[in-house]
Amino acid sequence: MIAKLKGLLDSTGIDHAIIDVGGVGYLVGASSRTLAALGPVGEAVTIHTEMLVAADSIRLVGFARADERDWYRLLTHVQGVGSRVALAILSALEPLDLHRAVAMGDKAMIARANGVGPKLAQRIVNELKDKIGTAPAGGPIGMGGVVALPTGSFAADALSALQNLGFKPHEASTAVAAAEEELGDNASLDALVRLALRKAAK
């Protein structure tokens, strides 16, 4: 599982970027929002990734922020929402705006994305509303109404690791926050993940 890439931005296209990591170019599909956030070609970038494994291919989808990746995972679990549609939604809406739209049942806002009609927008609202908590008043909010952990920190990586293991977003966030508080700021990623796993499994 490739969860994150750090390297140099080699090039970008309409719907992808190529990240040079130690001389190996990784082609990563991405939303227009993520592509805009990567900066100029040749600069160092860090991109959160989701690996899509099919019978005949392995693809990477990349995100400038961990909360975008979390929303991608939620969206692609909705029937009728594939990778392309999920990226179109994330191109049209910031995660915070998407959170508000789903929580408030605003299907018209979701339907602004290319390829999303009223019926699909309504299905997204219906299936995700109970999973994300109340509409945030402001500031970055994680899934389930839990305050998001800092992107790029060990805490964010630990949160991603627990979610990849099948823990619900609010369970993972609570466990990682408790582990970070117990271990302190200088904890290694390995120690943080191990303690968070123990706390999440209780």
Automatic annotation (TrEMBL):
Keywords for this protein: Cytoplasm, DNA damage, DNA recombination, DNA repair, DNA-binding, Hydrolase
Annotated spans, Domain I: 1-64
Subcellular location: Cytoplasm
Record Pfam families: HHH_5, RuvA_C, RuvA_N
Chief location category: cytoplasm
Region (Domain III) location: 154-202
Domain notes: Has three domains with a flexible linker between the domains II and III and assumes an 'L' shape. Domain III is highly mobile and contacts RuvB.
Complex and partners: Homotetramer. Forms an RuvA(8)-RuvB(12)-Holliday junction (HJ) complex. HJ DNA is sandwiched between 2 RuvA tetramers; dsDNA enters through RuvA and exits via RuvB. An RuvB hexamer assembles on each DNA strand where it exits the tetramer. Each RuvB hexamer is contacted by two RuvA subunits (via domain III) on 2 adjacent RuvB subunits; this complex drives branch migration. In the full resolvosome a probable DNA-RuvA(4)-RuvB(12)-RuvC(2) complex forms which resolves the HJ.
Record-given protein name: Holliday junction branch migration complex subunit RuvA
Organism: Sphingobium cyanobacteriorum
Gene responsible for this protein: ruvA
